[in-house]
What does this fold into?
Amino acid sequence: MKGNIVVDLEKCLGCHSCEIACAVEHSRSKELFQAVAERPRPQKRVIVEGCGGSNLPLQCRHCEDAPCVRVCPTGALVKEEIEGVVLLHDHLCIGCKWCVLACPFGVIVAAPDDKVMIKCDLCQERAKAGRLPACVESCPTGALQLASTAQLAGTKRREFLVEYLQDR
Amino acid sequence: MDQEKRNQRSIDPATLAMLDRAEAEGLETAWDRHDRQEPQCGFGLLGLCCRNCNMGPCRIDPFGGEPQKGVCGAGADTIVARNLLRAIAAGAAAHSDHGRDIVEALLHASTGQSPDYQVKDRDKLAALAGELDIAVEGRSAEEIAADVAQAALEEFGTRKGTLAFLNRVPEKRRETWSKFGLTPRGIDREIVEVMHRTHIGVDNEYVNLILHGLRTALSDGWGGSMWATELSDVLFGTPEPVEGVSNLGVLQENEVNIIVHGHEPTLSEMIVAAARDPELLELAQSKGAEGINVCGMCCTGNELLMRHGVPVAGNFLQQELAIITGAVEAMVVDVQCIMPALTSLADCYHTEIISTSPKAKFPGAKHVPFEEEKALQIAGEIVKIAVEGYPKRNPERVFIPKEKMEFVAGFSVEAILSALGGSLDPLLDAIKEGSIKGIAGIVGCNNPKITHDHGHVTLTEELIKADILVVETGCTAIASAKRGLLLPEAAQKAGPGLRAVCEALKIPPVLHMGSCVDISRILVVAAAVANALGVDISELPLAGAAPEWMSEKAVSIGSYVIGSGIFTVLGTVPQVLGSENVAALLTEGANDVIGAAFAVETDPLKAAVLIVEHISDKRSKLGLP
Ligand code: SF4
It folds into this structure.
């Protein structure tokens, strides 16, 4: 499904399960007990930030007109035509970090060796197998969902309507 | 549910039939709830979450990122070790508190306070008294029992420094324990000290923590559990080989079915007696039932089958399934391993869940407080509730799977000795000349993370094939019972050496030694063999395994088994992999300290290879063929 990860702020408890699931998904073994022993260490692509009592898991928004893609000097960052995912081809990445400067959300980070960048790929391997992204599947409260813009807008409309009618 | 997923849940046909039934009836079981928990919390699986103070909860990033320290500064090693210790403490507490209840039952029996209990095995009582330097000459059983019970109670508080049963431990082992500060000083004391040391800002050094964890576990194995076993034998009889039947097929279509589930034999022994009361049998007949069928489940089942050959309906993961048969009038429970899910499930049927222990209440259950002083009377009341429920059974919803299997159980140490003709020598000789390569104790629970019974049965079958005598307790033994491995005929599945020994002695290749506290019987055998050969337990061709373990009790058991010097393979991954240091200590470093360590292997075929290799290694070090 073409979609993006959406977060229900009220449901996120800040348990960081999505971070672990993300790192495991991006490990060689894809299995927690083996992944923790792998070197280099598997890295997460989603970061749970907290502010004023709210928690927000942040990951790449896969922008339509992605600033990171525009500034990338080597073409390592690309916006895929079909699924609309912003992907990083790390063999092309020279670690210049222009993308970090350009990204408004701070969700492109450097690998621990600082040589290449890492970011959310919307779990391409899982997507091919028809599975949800690891973070979505791991969230115990359902705070993370994969939704198309149309679905998201539909949910918003219903929420607005319910609230509007109640207030009257 | 698709076939593949279904077949991954269990290898037991009765269980699979009941899982289909559950699905058809729209009822959930532990397997469904486990699915719903997936994926499980990574911090929890790795032991990296600390809730020991209210600056927290804190978690450590397992992939080397931030945070690497809790608010107090505790890192992964400290947090993982502290969590492990608390699990050991809970497990040791469960066994030992069970032990205390048995000690008190003996004490009350000896003073006449609970007239329904008497000393049943006077020889064992006298032998124990001898071990404890308690006079027996010219004294009544009650007088001796009172002194033995007092001496046992003393063990919990320790004013004398060490546990009484350390006299059974080979000298070399005791030296190792004293060198590394592992000698248990008292049953309750070690558990309390775990709670103290794991409080914020006390013991932060993982090696020091784990050494104390081992000491606490040893106070369970050679203390709380051993007392539970020894005094249960005194009160209810030392098990002797006995025949019985296992699996859900033991439930009777035309009788009142009562399942006793939990762990302590005090109540269940009385239920068995009460169910034979002619008045209650008559009442059952007046309600249209042909009789009263008492069956066991989990370790209560093991206690009863060891001593009376009472049918055992199943192991841990079958408790919900028993209710789904629609044929159970009452499930009578005491303590440990009783799923909170039972009561809401029982609401869908006429089944009464009857809780009996002040320590274990269940929302939605009928609570009938059990008092030793009026034991038989209360047991009678409980049986009556079940009988009166019989007319409420809906025959259309009854579904009893047909599978059942005969077994021979009852292999206490005394029974093994008598099977060997009164001395350990035939066993020692068989081990020395290699017809028996070694002995493996397989114990523990069920866990939906492992295909039900697959871990137990596969490992057991592989080991007997390799001429390794297998001794079992708990839910493992029930798995083997259901598979027919506890029958003398199962010797045909054993390797030629073990087969010949079993056929000569007319014993099964897999010996059922009792409930989970009865793993202490296995320790006694291991120590006796070591003493007879003049070596340490860790030098013997022995191994332990817990292929489907889940409970904190199993954590304590595994720890006292390696603490006693026996290599142990765990079939589910313990929550320690968040600290490489702790994991390395438990799986390698421990060898240098106590001469034994853990291995983790979820595939029972590979676990069997590990054990066979370990045993052959130990044999060659002893110069045995
Ligand atoms: S004891 Fe330390 S690690 Fe544990 S919750 Fe408190 S501050 Fe956090």
